[in-house]
Amino acid sequence: MALPALGLDLCSLLGLFFFQLLLLLTTTTAGAVGQGPMPRVKYYAGDERRALSFFHHKGLQDFDTLLLSDDGNTLYVGAREAILALDIQDPGVPRLKNMISWPASDTKKSECAFKKKSNETQCFNFIRVLVPFNTTHLYACGTFAFSPACTFIGLQDSHLLPISEDKVMEGKGQSPFDPAHKHTAVLVDGMLYSGTMNNFLGSEPILMRTLGSQPVLKTDTFLRWLHPDASFVAAIPSTQVVYFFFEETASEFDFFEKLHTSRVAQVCKNDVGGEKLLQKKWTTFLKAQLLCAQPGQLPFNVIRHAVLLPDDISTAPRIYAVFTSQWQVGETRSSAVCAFSLTDIEHVFMGKYKELNKETSRWTTYRGHETYPRPGSCSVGPSSDKALTFMKNHFLMDEQVVGTPLLVKSGVEYTQLAVETAQGLDGHRHLVMYLGTTTGSLHKAVVNEHSSAYLVEEIQLFPDPEPVRNLQLAPTQGALFVGFSGGVWRVPRANCSVYESCVDCILARDPHCAWDPESRICRLLSTPNMNSWKQDMEQGNPEWACANGPMGRSPWPRSRPQIIKEVLAVPNSILELPCPHLSALASYRWTHGTAAVPDASSTVYNGSLLLILRDGGGGLYQCMATENGFSYPVVSYWVDSREQSLALNPELAGIPRERVEVLLTRGNDGAALAAQRSYWPHFLTVTVLLALVLSGALIILLVSPLGALRARGKVQGCGTLPPGEKAPLSREQCLQPSKECRTSASDVDADNNCLGTEVA
Ligand SMILES: *[C@@H]1O[C@H](CO)[C@@H](O)[C@H](O)[C@H]1NC(C)=O
Ligand SMILES: *[C@@H]1O[C@H](CO)[C@@H](O)[C@H](O)[C@H]1NC(C)=O
Ligand SMILES: *[C@@H]1O[C@H](CO)[C@@H](O)[C@H](O)[C@H]1NC(C)=O
Ligand SMILES: *[C@@H]1O[C@H](CO)[C@@H](O)[C@H](O)[C@H]1NC(C)=O
């Protein structure tokens, strides 16, 4: 080996090793620590604990649009050039009821390719709008090879009837031209309210109303009600108005260049357009800024999606929206979820207007007197010309709608959300949010009574990162459907069985799960619930929830294990005792009896305890987790020596035992141990590299006389070593006392033992 040639003895190597280890640990933790809550449990793609079913169909892709039938048993899916009806009544994989194809016509495809769009990725009919029109028809729109088209689709027993070509209409303003452009549409009282790009270039956003008996209404392009880059993400009807959520470059902050801002716009349902002025245009279009920010921080200024909580019976319904930020710190952006009360939004639209000062080109608060009826309000009857003239230029509100941040998380970009409430055992309704990310994970977040969310779990849906395109909750099926490029996932709300103990079940604080003490199973809550079931959504405190019967009165209910794993070992062997890290929110430590495990004979690697079993080292080893202020044993081992058996701890009497085999290595066989550890070569390589770098630095230091002086100064601080070749390394020697090498050297041969100590 080249190491001796570098003049490093084993102890300096050890020092380096630990230094390196420290570096490795600090860098990995720094990478993992992000702002915001951590998901308590993470499931990687294909994890059996969170088995998901997946629908896909040969030749189909881009499952972008999802619609749930009224009875909740059928999921309609808009894919590329096709629309599908899926039966979702069974818990397994959604079953294809039927499918109709709706390709863009050949003429449109060739025109599209002629206009320099890709015939491989863009010149197709991507379904963008899929809404229930009446009891017998759906209404659908697609990009139709950069030439938007819409059609009615007949239904028969929730089967889709084929589309006849002569029923296909032009769909400009309802579907975007470009599949990459954002859009939104909602059907209210037989009329379609849509927000999207209205031209081939994608430079003319429009907010319009079509279908039904009322006149078609549009936003005015000339008056610049919308910035040319406006990008619509949601449309939500309320009693009198329809709200649109979008993002655009803000023009009112003249000190910023290209500042994005999130907006809510309103149009009245009873708007019929103007007579002389604003003909076929909205006369009630108003917009306001949406603010989602933590105090003192840069705002999350790019809205990605917004939803209204369905069947919100509360007096102040709220809209939930996900935001990302225009500004990026490091590799990934951060995201936030904010809640906006409808009352606040109404209040802002009832407040002051802004107006553009033509001379200074600045937006200022309008201070003129108000007219009645208020311009932009949904008053009945035709508006006066005066009011309409006012409306042309006063469409931006002065105040912002300020949201309540429920969740702020760095390192993820949320693209979509779905919300519902779940009734806990205590009768309270808890808000549950499902958040899809750009990398194909799903976060299940629960909002606590202090309006801050915690993440119950993260499910990585796809092995390769790709964005979640759409989410659709199917409450009666107890599942969430996720559309993406290759198909549709069915994700059950929860799998309570993954929480194997009462403690885990309570700590998870999943409103869908509760502990059933009789069958000792964490169960999905369903009506009727049993009185004896346990849940603690407020505190997540297992101390009372899991203490029942005589166990509750036992002197140590907290740390009493459910089962003890017995391990037989020979002295001087190395044992590997695994400990599954069930929760990312817990901190883990190992105990031996009532004390900590001595460092000299053990180390923790990847959660497992690597233990050199010395004489008298047997007994109870427990991996203790501390979460939410509560400590409990995750796994308990009774390590017994094969040569002399230990007396049983009386406190452990009555706990069931199970004999287990653990990975076991003879102590003297250091080389074999080293070979087994996959990380060993890695450490060695890194150590050698570091040694090389340090020697390089050393040479540079010694070349400069000043450096040599400095090196000497440092050595003096350490005390014993003469200045020379090893000088810079002496620092590590100071950090890492050579005691360990010496003590162990007395035992066996120095080489093996130093290796042993490194592993231990
Ligand atoms: C739920 O979790 C249990 C325990 O890990 C597992 O056996 C089961 O297959 C899971 N079920 C689903 C539907 O994910
Ligand atoms: C796209 O056009 C090219 C050349 O015009 C042609 O070779 C190719 O087959 C076309 N691809 C598809 C999917 O139509
Ligand atoms: C539903 O709408 C379609 C399309 O306008 C129409 O042909 C059909 O008669 C309507 N059905 C009912 C029940 O109103
Ligand atoms: C870490 O431990 C887990 C089980 O506790 C195991 O599945 C995983 O492979 C281990 N990782 C390494 C790098 O050894």
Automatic annotation (TrEMBL):
<feature type="disulfide bond">
    <location>
        <begin position="268"/>
        <end position="378"/>
    </location>
</feature>
<keyword id="KW-0524">Neurogenesis</keyword>
<keyword id="KW-1015">Disulfide bond</keyword>
<feature type="disulfide bond">
    <location>
        <begin position="292"/>
        <end position="338"/>
    </location>
</feature>
<keyword id="KW-0812">Transmembrane</keyword>
<keyword id="KW-0472">Membrane</keyword>
<dbReference type="InterPro" id="IPR015943">
    <property type="entry name" value="WD40/YVTN_repeat-like_dom_sf"/>
</dbReference>
<keyword id="KW-0217">Developmental protein</keyword>
<comment type="similarity">
    <text>Belongs to the semaphorin family.</text>
</comment>
<dbReference type="Pfam" id="PF01403">
    <property type="entry name" value="Sema"/>
</dbReference>
<feature type="signal peptide">
    <location>
        <begin position="1"/>
        <end position="30"/>
    </location>
</feature>
<dbReference type="InterPro" id="IPR002165">
    <property type="entry name" value="Plexin_repeat"/>
</dbReference>
<keyword id="KW-0325">Glycoprotein</keyword>
<feature type="disulfide bond">
    <location>
        <begin position="141"/>
        <end position="150"/>
    </location>
</feature>
<dbReference type="Pfam" id="PF01437">
    <property type="entry name" value="PSI"/>
</dbReference>
<protein>
    <submittedName>
        <fullName>Semaphorin-4A</fullName>
    </submittedName>
</protein>
<dbReference type="InterPro" id="IPR013783">
    <property type="entry name" value="Ig-like_fold"/>
</dbReference>
<dbReference type="InterPro" id="IPR016201">
    <property type="entry name" value="PSI"/>
</dbReference>
<dbReference type="InterPro" id="IPR036352">
    <property type="entry name" value="Semap_dom_sf"/>
</dbReference>
<dbReference type="InterPro" id="IPR027231">
    <property type="entry name" value="Semaphorin"/>
</dbReference>
<keyword id="KW-0221">Differentiation</keyword>
<feature type="transmembrane region" description="Helical">
    <location>
        <begin position="679"/>
        <end position="703"/>
    </location>
</feature>
<dbReference type="InterPro" id="IPR001627">
    <property type="entry name" value="Semap_dom"/>
</dbReference>
<keyword id="KW-0732">Signal</keyword>
<feature type="disulfide bond">
    <location>
        <begin position="112"/>
        <end position="123"/>
    </location>
</feature>
<feature type="domain" description="Sema">
    <location>
        <begin position="35"/>
        <end position="493"/>
    </location>
</feature>
<keyword id="KW-1133">Transmembrane helix</keyword>
